[in-house]
Amino acid sequence: MHFEILVEDQSGEKTLNILIPKIIGNEHTFNVHSYKGIGRIPRNLNANLTDANRRFLLTQLPKLLDGYGKTYAGYHKNYQAAVIVICDLDDKCLTKFRNELNNILNNCNTKPITRFCIAIEEGEAWFLGDIQAIKSAYPKAKNKILNAYKNDAICGTWECLADAIYKGGSVLLSKKGWQAVGLEKSRWAEKISPHMNVEKNESPSFNYLRQKLNELLASITLE
User: Fold this and answer.
1) Which of 20, 42, 185, 194 is the most exposed place for a label (fewest CB within 10 A)?
2) Cα(first)–Cα(last) distance of the chain, in Å?
3) How far apart are CA 214 and CA 24, in angstroms?
4) Is-contact 163 184, C-beta < 8 A?
5) Could you tell me how far CA 136 lies from the centroid of its own chain?
6) Which fold has domain 2-123+201-222?
7) Which ranges in 25-123 belong to alpha helices (H)?
8) Three-class SS of residue 156?
9) Sign of the C-alpha dihedral, residues 84, 88, 94, 100?
10) What is the 8-class DSSP label of residue 112?
C-alpha cells in the first residue's frame, strides 16, 4: 500500500519520516508533504488558490484531496493508496473540526481513501507520550515537568516540552521569536523520534494514527 501523508510543518515531516516506517514496515511506501502552517478551510471549497495560499495545509486541502481522488481512482486493489491528513487541534472544537474535514472529503468528485488524524493539542504531545524517548534524547530533562504532564491535555504542549528540555524554558525560547521556536521543534523531532517506541506511546492521538494505518494495512491483506 502507498500512503500520501500531509502535515502542516517541517518538524512534523521530520517526525513522520522517522516514525512511519516503524509502523508500516518496509513492504509499503509513503511520501510526507509539509506546508508552511495549517491555514484555514476556504469558504468556497472549489475556489482557485493564490500563490500565497498554496503554502497552507487546510487552505489547499480541498484541491489536494480532489486531485488525489482522481490520481488514485484507477489503482488496482492489490496496490491501494491512502491519504493521511495530520494536523494540530490547537484550540479548535474536535467534533466541529472533524465535521469540517469530512465535508471537504465529501465534496470531492472522486473521494480518495482518507483518514484524518488530529494531534491533541500539538505534535509535541506525541513526544510527551514517550517520556523514555525524551530522556534518551535529553538525559537532563526535568522529570518533575515530564511526570506532571497529562497525555493529550490542552495545556500548552510545546511550552511544556520546552520547559522540560530547553535551557531557559519556553519563556526564553518564545522571546527569540516563532522562527526560533520552529527550528527548535525540528531539532526535537530529529533527536527524540529515533528513540520512540510506536507500540508503547501513551498519547491517544498518536495511537489513533497508528491504529488507522494498521487498519488500512489489514484491509489489504483481507482482500
Assistant:
1) 194
2) 12
3) 7
4) no
5) 22
6) Rossmann fold (3.40.50)
7) 57-72, 94-106
8) coil
9) negative
10) P
**CATH code 3.40.50 region(s) in the chain:** 2-123+201-222
Which set of grid coordinates corresponds to residue 187? 531539532
Q: Which three cell numbers stand for residue 96?
A: 466541529
Cell numbers for 19, please give them: 516514525
Q: What is the largest CA-CA distance in the chain?
A: 54
Cα 104 from chain centroid?
Answer: 18
| Helix H or strand E encompassing 32 | strand 29-34
| Cβ–Cβ < 8 Å for 24, 213 | yes
- Reading the block at residue 159, the C-alpha cell is 511550552
pLDDT in tens, the chain (223 residues): 999 999 999 999 999 999 999 999 999 999 999 998 889 888 888 766 555 556 899 999 999 999 999 998 766 666 789 999 999 888 889 999 999 999 999 999 999 999 999 988 888 999 999 999 999 999 999 999 999 999 999 889 999 999 999 999 999 999 999 999 999 999 999 999 999 999 999 999 999 999 999 999 998 755 5
Q: What is the dihedral of CA 139, 170, 201, 114, to 10 degrees?
A: -140
